[in-house]
Amino acid sequence: MHNVFVMLDALSQDLRYALRALRRSPGFASAAILSLALGIGANTAIFSLIDAVILKSLPVRHPDELLQVMMGKEAYGGYSNPTWEHLRDRQDVFSGIFAYSRWGFNLASGGEARSVNGVYVSGQYFETLGVRAALGRTLAPADDTRGCAGSAVLSYGFWQREYGGRADVLGKTISIDRYPIEIVGVTERGFNGAEVGASADVMAPLCAIALIGSVYPRMLDTNYYPVGWLQVMARLKRGVSANQATARLQALAPQIYQAAFEQQGLVREDGRQLGPKDRDQYLAQTFGTQPAGNGISSLRREYRETLMVLMTTVGVVLLIACANVANLLLARGATREREIAIRMAVGGGRGRLVRQLLTESLLLSAIGAVLGVLFAEWGARLLVRLLDASLDLTLDVRVLAFTMAVAVLTSLLFGIVPAWRGTRVDPQSAMKANARGVIEGTKLGLGKALVAAQIALSLLLVVGAALMLSTFWKLVSLDAGFDRGHVLLISADLRSGHYPMDRWSAVYLEMLDRLRAIPGVRSASVSYITPVCHCRWPGEVTIEGYTPKSRSDGMASFNNVSDGYFETVGTSIVGGRDFNSHDTSTSLKVAIVSKSFAQKYFGAANALGQHFRIRDGRGSQVAWSIPGGPVEIVGIVKDAKYGSLRDEPSPFVFIPWSQGGVPGPLTSFELRPAVGTPTALISAVKSAIGKVNRDVSIEFETLAAKVDDSISRERLLATLSGFFGGLALLLATIGLYGVMSYNVARRRNEIGIRMALGAGQSRVLRMVLTEVAILVGVGLLAGLGTAAATTRFVASFLYGVDSNDPWTLSLASGVLALVAGVAGFLPARRASRLDPMSALREE
């Protein structure tokens, strides 16, 4: 115990001395702490995101017991309700199992929609997770039975935002898609659903989907394949391992799939007729599991690699910051040689002095870490806004432990070498030397090596930033086949208007006529899907004289559009004509195809006037009324991006609205204003659609905003890599300036003698700049080699630029060389203007 007190007393003395030493050098302390705060803060911010998206467990009871149950190995596929119900009833390895589906709930009673994040959950959802109610009760199995009246549980956050935390919310109703559902409870604070990144504001039982309505009829009774709409999670029984549960589920799989098929059959979600191959594939499926203690997350799947790249980036930034601080400590150590020599002369051991200097380094890191956490709090929340996600960013033990570990590691990285080197002093020589220390005239090789390393690492980050910015710019400026700048998109939902199915098409046309009559509208159209919707309606086509190599080779994408659609979205018609009033349900069936379609299936021949067929009349859900007879191509349009901006052009078929059959209850209108911004039309659009039916739900978005949202990952990478690349460039510039300034200051006598012996200003300037050029050249060569070897790891994030693009490498090298040259020129100029007599008098 006595030894412990002695150690604590010594540590207390070291800390007090370190504080006094830092107070005596405020400039040094400020520069070092700021560098470390930025480096540690950046690392903590990115790690906070990684923790929230990937590592953090769900705030539920014993999350380590949870598993995701998958159909096969596809974690992001889905179950249809009949398959889920047979799995629920036949499994015997879980103490609880539930299904859920994210859904957009519209709380508005009509007109412009007010959407919240809804979730349909099965009866054991809350019981299995172990989530309790802060108010009222949660849903139970009895709430999820066919023919239920429906009930709703609100999340704690939504209850606070929407109802101000009032207790009298229980028993009231909430309107979901115009259907009143009784509120029975509020979840405990901190629970936001089982899916990370997507908050669950309102939770309703699965059975309520039959009341609230859906795009698909008989949702609960239809066995969709191959894509379902439910995710399944379960809690292991006590004593059952994950491997045992998986093996048992795989043994039960044949009877579960067979029972679901015999009871409900199969329906393809894309409308195509099922064949024996589809049935065999469904019956051959099995089950798989994976740990789900940290929830299920599409955000995790999309951004996992992005976050790893950013973590590597900020790690490099921290290394550059450490090199900067190490250089500062080396310079400071040289000025403290007399002090250290005196302490050694009066009996201070080298180990004791090293510990003292390391304590100062640890104190710098600790202060930097505290400031870094504050910076990380702000930075992480800013990043979440860029991600447009709902994440729990509360500091937990894992984040704090990471920050502490980074602080300690950082202090060792930049502190141990300067501390060891600073105590390698001969007390007698130091006492005889002048105030500038005993290494007068030395070349400070370690400091220069650190600067070269900084330049190399900075070049790596600058190259990465240039690649990401180039990718983002190419996507932003890409000719996507449409004019994104002046188009307003209106999504309309007829379900709230209570129209029978046979009236949908006529109602849409009536709305379109009213929209076209709005003053200031240059053109308007209606379509089933819009550009960059990340959706596809596939169908098989048959063309005389073309033999597909496979089934997929005969597939095309379909859309159902009105006349004026191409003018409105700004897609050029490169041949033939647009649809017109003569294209009716009783006239010859016609289509407009994309340039890719014409080139693939007709080659050099003119596709205009050619014919194709849609197999079985069910090539696309938007082409139900097109019979198996011939469809004439009357127009060819420029290729456009309907999935991702990164997608290559693919065959596309546009069917006239009047011949496309009965559309679904959800569709889109497109408006292009004659002048002004598209959003200026919103008020007039509400009025026009309200005159047809005020209960119809509508949502607004500009095509430009839709495109921007589609490249959010690229924007995040470009923004952060640009920021960190600039920060690295700044730190390297400061490091080079500091080392060269210090080197010039320590060589004042040498430079003075050279000038006294006849060396001119230009020669001195050239001498110092040569040193700068060598440093920068070595750093650039090392950086180029590192970049060439590592940028291939980010190739999947790039678009339109090669990972080792010579222009990018040259530009990054040129920028870094220019900035470094300026940083080195300033000390060189100061050296060339030195007064020899003043320098010699100091000797």
Compact summary:
With about 850 residues, the protein is α+β, with helices and mostly antiparallel strands. Helices cover about 50% and strands about 15% of the residues.
What this model shows, in words?
By secondary structure, this protein is of the alpha+beta class. It is 49% helix and 16% strand. The chain contains 24 helices and 24 strands. The strands form 4 sheets. Strands 1, 2, 4, 5, 6, 7, 8, 9, 11 and 13 form a 10-stranded mixed beta sheet that branches. α1 crosses α11, α9 packs parallel to α12 (397-422) and α9 (298-335) runs antiparallel to α14 (445-476). It is globular and about 105 Å long. 43% of the residues are buried.
